[in-house]
Amino acid sequence: MLKAEALAVFRGERLIFRDLSFTVPEGGALVLAGANGAGKSTLLRLLAGLIRPIAGRLLWQDRDAFLDLAEHAGRVAYLGHHDAVKPGLTAAENLRFTAALSGGDANAALAAMGLSDLTELPARMLSAGQKRRLALARLPLSNAALWLLDEPTLGLDAASIARFGELLTAHRANGGLVIAATHVPLPLTDVQALRLG
Fold first, then answer.
1. What is the C-alpha separation between 105 and 141, in angstroms, rounded?
2. Which residues of 157-171 are buried (b: 16+ CB within 10 A; e: fewer)?
3. pLDDT class of 97 with cuts at 50, 70, 90
């Protein structure tokens, strides 16, 4: 379970949000909504441990999530606006490191996102949507309980969004948590919403 209590964040001289509280239970999902600049990406970065709040607490299983940042990093998979795909590596090579760390199967992850025919293609030759699917394929390989997703369906067609929905459903069925910032509906059921700004 993830619990935020009265979080507040400044960026530069600007207060992004304050007194922000929410709870995401095991298997739960929270969608962050709001206008551009409302603080959705900032909140995801905070939840990932990349920035610290000026006030409030973030709890994981009722313990301070930031007490051990290395431990927190191990429970988080963060997908930002950039796909973090190495253009000189093939699609399969882009996933092999994560698969080796987790004991997962890179080829199965590629297949889950409909990329089996592209495994040996250099990532620089993939379309924007294919690169996004490759980045999404890394999520289940991470073994992270908490998936933090910033506009995860950007550039995806309907079939790819459906495949992504299957990944989300499987993750949540295993007790995983999903927090996503988006401007469009995601393939999630039984989801909480939090509007910022």
1. 7
2. eeebeebbeebbeeb
3. confident
Q: Give the angle subtended at the CA of 75 by the CAs of 70 and 79, to the nearest 5°.
A: 105
Each residue's pLDDT tens digit, 139-177: 999 989 999 999 999 999 999 999 999 999 999 999 999
Is 53 strand, coil or helix? coil
As a whole number of angstroms, the longest Cα–Cα distance in the chain is 49
58, 31 in Cβ contact below 8 A? no
Instruction: Give the orientation angle of helix 128-141 with respect to helix 91-102, to 10 degrees.
Output: 10
How far apart, in whole angstroms, are the C-alpha atoms of residue 61 and residue 134?
31
User: From CA 55, how far away is CA 113, in angstroms rounded?
Assistant: 39
Domains of the chain: 1-75+146-197 (3.40.50.300), 84-143 (no CATH)
